[in-house]
Write a structure and sequence with these properties.
Elements lengths: L1 H37 L11 H4 L7 H18 L1 H14 L3 H18 L8 E6 L6 E9 L2 H5 L5 E7 L7 E7 L4 E2 L4 H9 L24
Antiparallel strand pairs: 1-2, 1-5, 2-3, 3-4
Length: 219
């Protein structure tokens, strides 16, 4: 009887931990981000500081200023003058040897993720990686083109294989499209599976995908 009670208490305790950790980590990250944004207020000259201009303290002012600043930069960048300034700045940066490579890589990554015309992650697939018999989830980013495609004997697809639990790092691989298995799960579900290390899986669905081609028209 005592053993059952201890087992029940342990189960309830573990359930509580499992419920608290995601919520706690999420709020902690938000707390750090908001704190960093609020520190931006320190760069405002003392005579223009909101606490002196207004008779009351405005909570979360740093976050508000940051959001307004980002929105303003977006508006300016979309304008004709803003595009000219950005173009001029890019030309100057690309003349610096070391900085040029870093800037180009970051720009391409940001364009791929945030731009409406970017490649982004289009589909989750399953590949045999890092060797035959072992499988990894990867994301299709586009179809291989140019010299790379010409020198390969098969039609290849660009994929990104993320790492666990940090999916922002990973490997870029070109895989023949016949060697990939299409997955029915969404990109978001695949990310959840990767970040959790396989602990959190998408709801069971009827997977009818078979090993076959992923046509360029659908990518």
């Amino acid at each position: 009887m005592l053993k059952k009670i201890r087992k029940s208490i342990k189960g309830v305790f573990l359930t509580g931990i499992a419920a608290m950790i995601p919520v706690g980590v999420t709020f902690y990250i938000l707390y750090l981000i908001i704190g960093m944004m609020n520190n931006l207020v320190k760069f405002i000259p003392a005579r223009f500081h909101p606490d002196r201009l207004f008779p009351f303290h405005i909570p979360g002012l740093g976050m508000i200023i940051t959001l307004i600043l980002i929105f303003t930069i977006g508006l300016v960048t979309k304008s004709y003058l803003g595009k000219k300034l950005v173009s001029l700045g890019e030309r100057l940066v690309r003349k610096i040897p070391l900085v040029r490579g870093i800037y180009n890589a970051l720009k391409q990554l940001v364009d791929a993720v945030f731009s409406d015309k970017g490649q982004s992650f289009k589909k989750a697939v399953l590949i045999e990686y890092p060797r035959k018999g072992l499988y990894s989830i990867a994301f299709v980013t586009g179809v291989s083109r140019g010299e790379v495609q010409v020198k390969t004997s098969q039609k290849c697809v660009n994929i990104f294989v993320p790492t666990t639990p940090n999916p922002t790092s990973g490997f870029y691989i070109m895989v023949p499209e016949v060697d990939m298995m299409s997955l029915d799960m969404t990109v978001e579900e695949a990310f959840t599976l990767i970040i959790s290390g396989g602990i959190v899986s998408p709801e069971d669905i009827q997977h009818t995908s078979e090993k076959g081609e992923i046509h360029a028209d659908n990518i």
